[in-house]
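Posting for a labmate who doesn't have an account.
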Amino acid sequence: MRSFSQARTLIAESVLLDSRLALFHERENWLAVADLHFGFELSQRVAGRLVPFWGMESIETRLRQLLCDYHPATLILLGDLVHDKAAADEFFSLVTRLREQCNLILIAGNHDAQIKHTDLRDSFATDRFEFHHGDCEREQNGRIQIIGHFHPAATLHDGAGLRLKFPALVQESGCWILPAFSPWAAGTEWIEREQSHIWLCTPHRILLVDRE
């Protein structure tokens, strides 16, 4: 395992992974995050579970910090924007505030099926990359697919029984899977589909996991 002492590192030419669970392209000037599941606590309260109201504030705070640090021209939100329709109004209020800082691309995910809004789109593409949520297979078109949906994570072991699981970005040859931005998403241990790089996002550094 290799450790990068900084909280961000280059994972490809001009592409930075930030430990705050975001991807930034220095030359194309976009910032991408996936799986906000905004308003998870609202949907839980509708179901009768008294979940504390801190997730939405955490999401907005981290997004604003990232926007201030990178000043992207475009922020791409890669699906599962909300957990369910209970938070639709709160989410689009957030969108209005974020648009004061940059252009927004809103890509619909499977959790967004119940919200109808003209701003939602199925995908977005640049010369080199295609962004979509990842819940449906797409034909390869020569671009690297950047998706969410899977909430990838990996676990560190110290040999003495300690296990720590962290969100991860999975970098396959033609597809990069972003970690979930939601603070409520525990993440799912990633099972490799092909040889890939797995980048763990710990609070203060990026770790590259070597899989033998």
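Reply:
Got it, the structure tokens are right above this. The first strand starts at residue 2 and ends at 4.
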